[in-house]
Design goal:
101 residues, 19% strand, disordered N terminus, 2 helices, 3-stranded antiparallel sheet
Length: 101
């Protein structure tokens, strides 16, 4: 039996929808983004929100560099949200990826 690994996918994020105002959506997106990273997923593309939610294309995090890159992208987004809505959101995390044998 051959082993198959999934390299990427799409996750529908139902709470992130057009029903939210822009500020609530932006802050909620930060929470979802961090949750995806914790699940070992690196968001690649956030589709336009619909009333049913937002589809997020992702790749799995396989190396420490992938996790760090995703966190840097999240930090950049947080700065953008802070500037746009006069917020003071900070992220202080470290991620260690366990390499599977």
């Amino acid at each position: 039996m051959d082993c198959m690994t999934i390299q990427e996918g799409i996750s529908p994020i139902y709470p992130l929808s057009r029903h939210m105002n822009e500020k609530t959506y932006a802050v909620s997106k930060i929470h979802v983004w961090l949750s995806l990273i914790k699940q070992g997923k690196k968001p690649l593309h956030w589709n336009t929100p619909t009333y049913e939610g937002t589809d997020v294309e992702f790749d799995f995090i396989n190396h420490q560099e992938d996790a760090e890159e995703s966190l840097q992208e999240l930090q950049f987004y947080i700065k953008k949200v802070n500037n746009s809505f006069n917020l003071n959101i900070h992220l202080d995390v470290s991620v260690t990826i366990k390499e599977s044998i």
